[in-house]
Amino acid sequence: MIALSVNLNKIALIRNSREGNFPSVSDFARYCIDAGADGITVHPRPDQRHIRPGDVRDLSQLVSALPGLEFNIEGNPFAPPRDTYPGLLALVRETRPDQCTLVPDSNDQLTSDHGFDLRVSAEALAPIIDELKNLGVRISLFMDPDEEQIALAKAVGADRIELYTGPYAAAWNDSATLDPLLERYISAARAAVDCGLGVNAGHDLNLENLRRFADQVVGLQEVSIGHALTVDALKMGMAAAVKAYKTCLDSAAQ
User: Is the pTM of this model over 0.90?
Assistant: First the structure.
């Protein structure tokens, strides 16, 4: 089974456009869970443009009380504290999620758009990974489909990688680009599995392009989807959108 972890950042973004707590991020987490989601993902950023530290704490309590569900916190481990944002590592130490996905994003990025270059950052990441694993947190590194880099992810101590699927989604309507690019993802996932890493994926996956990826990328364990699922929820309702993505994953060949 390929797990679906629903990213709630866009629900928080809508909430933040007004004073108060409407829509409630925790309420939407419950809707997703009730509809069959396997986990909840958040990506708090220092500018608190969407998920806030309080959301992380609330969702941690919610998910930890429900057996079989997983809580995944994403973010840049090197981003310093800012205002009431205590830093990613402080939030992970406090809430002890099932998984922490480390991402090399900067404050001025609209969204994550590349994986780690571990030839540059492995030395700085190694003690962070060791500390968080000692807290019982599974560590996933946000990575491009590069077999050399994936071998370095294993060497630095990661448990999983999350393949950055933005380029795959961008190439969806161009078969000349898509087919060789998908082969890179297939080879990258195979390399990860061969060296003992779990494989996650995320970014711009949707109901149109998800099935082919899930069919062909052997070893895929989890996808994290937020933006497209939230857009689909505007059309069909949150519960129906979660169920549609679950159906897509459950029908994948693997």
Answer: yes
Active-site residue 114, yes or no? no
Buried b (16+ CB within 10 A) or exposed e, 114-151: ebbebeebbeebeebbeebeeeebbbbbbbbbbbebbb
- Local structure of residue 184 (DSSP, 8 states): H
**Cα-atom radius of gyration of the chain, to the nearest Å?**
17
Q: How confident is the model at residue 179 (pLDDT cuts 50, 70, 90)?
A: very high
Which of 139, 129, 133 is CA-nearest to residue 162?
139
Catalytic residue among 43, 50, 70, 162: 43
Domains and CATH numbers, the chain: 3-250 (3.20.20.70)
Q: Using CA atoms, how far apart are residues 238 and 25, in angstroms rounded to an integer?
A: 13
Using an 8 Å Cβ cutoff, are 160 and 223 in contact? no
Which of the following is catalytic: 50, 70, 162, 203? Answer: 203
Catalytic one among 70, 74, 162, 222?
Answer: 74
Which amino acid appears at position 217 of this protein?
Answer: V
| Contact indicator for 126, 163 with CB cutoff of 8 Å | no
Which residues, 6 or more positions from 188, have their beta carbon under 8 angstroms from its beta carbon? 143, 145, 146, 147, 150, 163
Both structure tokens of 85: 């944002």
Least confident segment among 29-33, 156-160, 248-252: 248-252
